[in-house]
Predict the structure.
Amino acid sequence: MVRARSSLAAVRGAVVACERCPRLREHCRRVAEERKREFRDQVYWGLPVPGFGDPEARLLVAGLAPAAHGGNRTGRVFTGDSSGDWLYEALHRFGFASQPQSVSRDDGQHLTGVYVTAAARCAPPANRPTREELTRCRPFLAAELALLTRVRVVLALGRVAHEAWLRASGWWERMPARERPRFAHGAEAMLPDGRILIASYHPSRQNTNTRRLTRPMWHAVFRRARKLVDG
């Protein structure tokens, strides 16, 4: 177990030190320097954001990328923005998180049985990493998947994260196109190795403000994940 923790720490270190995507690094640094008015007195993280959670996780939650004034500010995935508010409220409701909110790296938040990660580790302009940038970032996700050996349920938040997990896990190449799990909110697929992939709309403001994603819809996918994790 110590070895797994140490290896995940090495992955985190490699993520934070990454400079593979000049466009993203420049954007994150600029945002960290300019800052948003309401966070003017805070020091932004401004670096790639590593995954966060339990090395013994049975549930993996994968999102798109850090938000410019969320993870790029706080240094923790899904922390400090409205999407994070939705995520951690649900994780707390269903017994995966010690607190219903995640506001900073040192807020005492503790995750049990879940690991939270993303397809891209730098905040992208307009929340849109390029396909090339996602490809460069994929080895980090693949490394986490290799180390998180107890994961049995994967919850992909959004179409990009759904494809990113399939590619990082190797199933995208191994499965014929017609057999690959399709993305649709609440869709569930069992992979040949027994892991279960659940798809959900991302809790972005674009989805929550328009009610494309509602709280009952959101809680339903976590309720299902909890049931599957508990066996």
